[in-house]
Each structure stands twice: as C-alpha cells, then as structure tokens.
Design brief:
Layout lengths: L4 H9 L1 H17 L5 E8 L5 H7 E9 L9 E3 L11 E7 L8 H11 E12 L21 H11 L1 E9 L7 H11 L11 E8 L23
Parallel strand pairs: 1-2, 1-4, 2-3, 4-5
Antiparallel strand pairs: 5-7, 6-7
Helix pairs in contact: 1-2, 4-5
C-alpha cells in the first residue's frame, strides 16, 4: 500500500525522517557535485530533496502520483504518463516511487522518454536484503523491495546504463538494545550489505533502447510498414 502524502510528510518531520533526508541529500551532492542541470524532475515524494535539486539545476519540478496526493506547488500525475515532452529534462530523482508502481518497467520507460540523451536518473528504493524492507514502520518498509541485480536488469532492459550504486541507512529504526541483540545473534551469517535499508543507483540514458514486443509476439505478424 502506498503511504499518503500526509504520512510521508509526518515521517520526514520526525528525527528519523530527518536522518533519512540528510543521508540521501548528501549522496545526491556527492554523485553530482559540480553538475548544473537545465531541468530536474523529482518523481514520487521528493519534497525533502527539493533544496538539493534546486541547487543542482536551473529549473526544478516535483511530480507526485495521483494515488498518493500532492503538496502545494507540486504537479499531480501518473508515474507512467508524465505530462512532459520527450527529451525535456536532463535529471530525474525517483524516491518513494518505483516500489509502489504497478509496473516498475513502465515507470522507467516513461523516465527514459522525458530524459535527454545522456540524462541522469537517481533512484532510491528499499533494499530487499535489509531490515527496513521487512517492517512497515517507515515508508521504506512498504511496497516492493529491490536487489542491486533487480535494478541493473530493469535499467538495461529499458535503456539506462547503470552507474554508481550504494547502500544507505545502516542506522536501525529498531530500539538500540533490540537491534544489538538481533545483530549479534545473526552477524556471522549476514554480510555488511544486508542491513542497510535503502539501495541507491544512478543510471544514464543511452541513445537507443531495445524494441520490446507486447501484443504481437511473432515479429512476422506485425503490420506492414510503408515508406513515404
């Protein structure tokens, strides 16, 4: 279930939400320290990251899903049908977005469409191997969780070249004592990348993407094409 805009706003107003925003904002500035984008889009719930997006771009637009609700000054739209022209922005941030999509590939195809060739995509999703993804006490415990391999596969299928990737939010949301007991009892079996709550990945739009067949499975059954 997708959290409402009110739930997300309350989460980011809490100390834990402030920690999450600081971690993601720091990584964004690290991945694009000197980039000045012409147009940047924040898709999902990117209000806590608007200040950094504005610092990295000349113009910024926040788009929120219709099923989530929107805040003043943002645009309400469907993630798979963005009200933007082809090649109209050169940077996109997806946060609290892909994990709630009915079809994550369709969302990324639409992101590919509106990005300029060579444009940058920054995605933050729940880490499937982390503790956060398995408890719905934070927004990163809701929706679908992803592994690094999952994201790379979708990126390549849609037409993005995977770039930087890392994991964030190692600090647990659990009470310290409870977390310590759980960690000490399982740390021998769990590598370091299991615990972080969020997987972050950067992608770059390639000029061409694969042609995917949908309704017509056999290419020979496709309608004939005539040249003008």
């Amino acid at each position: 279930m997708r959290p409402s805009v009110q739930d997300l706003s309350l989460f980011y107003a809490s100390p834990l939400g402030g920690y999450v925003a600081a971690e993601i904002n720091t990584l964004l500035k690290t991945w694009a320290p000197s980039s000045v984008f012409a147009h940047a889009i924040g898709l999902g719930y990117a209000s806590p990251y608007k200040e950094v997006l504005c610092a990295l771009s000349q113009k910024t637009l926040l788009i929120m899903p219709a099923s989530q609700g929107a805040e003043p000054g943002t645009c309400l739209a469907r993630e798979e049908m963005l009200p933007l022209a082809d090649d109209s922005c050169d940077a996109m941030l997806l946060v609290h977005c892909l994990e709630f999509a009915l079809d994550s590939s369709e969302v990324l195809k639409e992101s590919w469409r509106v990005l300029t060739p060579g444009g940058s995509l920054f995605i933050f999703v729940p880490n499937i191997y982390g503790l956060w993804a398995h408890f719905s006490v934070t927004p990163f415990g809701m929706g679908k969780a992803f592994s690094e391999a999952d994201l790379r596969t979708i990126f390549e299928d849609v037409g993005f070249r995977p770039g930087h990737s890392t994991f964030l939010l190692s600090v647990p949301w659990l009470p310290a004592e409870s977390f310590l007991r759980k960690h000490l009892s399982t740390k021998v079996l769990m590598p370091e990348k299991v615990l972080p709550g969020v997987l972050a990945m950067q992608g770059v739009k390639t000029l061409y993407r694969p042609v995917l067949l949908h309704d017509v499975e056999d290419p020979r059954e496709c309608p004939a094409v005539s040249f003008a």
